[in-house]
């Protein structure tokens, strides 16, 4: 008896009706010949938008989805987190929550988890992470900090 395969993002997208089984099979075939993440292959093939994938991942991880195109950022928080740190770890402080914690938008929670303790110490508050679309975050960085 073979062990059950864990569901991947492709399975979840299909289960939610965001892609068809045919599209998933196509994406898996392409994925075999690339180093890209399966979700990136599905996006590159035009089957879903990056936002659809990130919204689904946020639900699966029990995290808030943050639409950076609509977010009103706290300028005081932006000044208190080093630009280089935000760019390196793809994270950005969004707002102070009612309970005093700071909501951070992140593109990949695993990529920044190890620095959050240092950031919390620097800000003197606890944080909570929400997922944002990587391309939206990069566009926001260009708008805030300039450069390419």
Brief summary:
By secondary structure, the chain is α/β, with parallel strands linked by helices. Helices cover 52% and strands 12% of the residues.
Can you describe this structure?
The chain is α/β, with parallel strands linked by helices. Helix content is about 50%, strand content about 10%. The protein is built from eight helices and four strands, in the order H-H-H-H-E-H-H-E-E-H-E-H. It starts with 8 loop residues before the first helix and ends with a helix.
Following the backbone from N to C, one meets helices and strands in this order, namely: HHHHEHHEEHEH
The pLDDT mean sits at 91
What's the number of extended β-strand segments? Answer: 4
Q: Based on helices, strands and strand pairing, what is the structural class?
A: alpha/beta
General form: elongated
> Could you name the ranges where pLDDT drops below 50 across 5 or more consecutive residues?
none
Q: Nearest-angstrom radius of gyration?
A: 17 Å
Distance between the ends: 52 Å
- Number of H/I helices: 8
The strands making up the biggest β-sheet line up spatially as 1-4-3-2
Strand content: 5-15%
Give a short account of the largest sheet.
4 strands, mixed
Oligomer: single chain
**Helix content percent band:** 40-55%
Keyword list:
148 residues
List the helices and strands and how they pair.
Blueprint: H1 9-15, H2 21-32, H3 38-44, H4 50-60, E1 64-65, H5 75-80, H6 83-89, E2 91-96, E3 102-106, H7 109-123, E4 127-131, H8 134-145
Parallel strand pairs: 1-4, 3-4
Antiparallel strand pairs: 2-3
């Amino acid at each position: 008896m073979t062990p059950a395969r864990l569901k991947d993002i492709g399975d979840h997208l299909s289960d939610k009706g965001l892609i068809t089984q045919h599209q998933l099979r196509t994406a898996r075939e392409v994925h075999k010949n690339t180093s890209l993440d399966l979700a990136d292959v599905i996006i590159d093939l035009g089957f879903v938008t990056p936002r659809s994938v990130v919204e689904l991942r946020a639900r699966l991880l029990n995290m808030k989805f943050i639409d950076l195109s609509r977010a009103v950022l706290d300028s005081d928080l932006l000044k208190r987190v080093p630009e280089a740190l935000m760019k390196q770890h793809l994270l950005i402080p969004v707002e102070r929550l009612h309970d005093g914690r700071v909501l951070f938008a992140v593109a990949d929670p695993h990529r920044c988890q190890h620095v959050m303790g240092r950031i919390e110490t620097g800000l003197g508050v606890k944080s909570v992470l929400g997922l944002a679309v990587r391309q939206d975050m990069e566009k926001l960085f260009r708008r805030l900090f300039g450069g390419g």
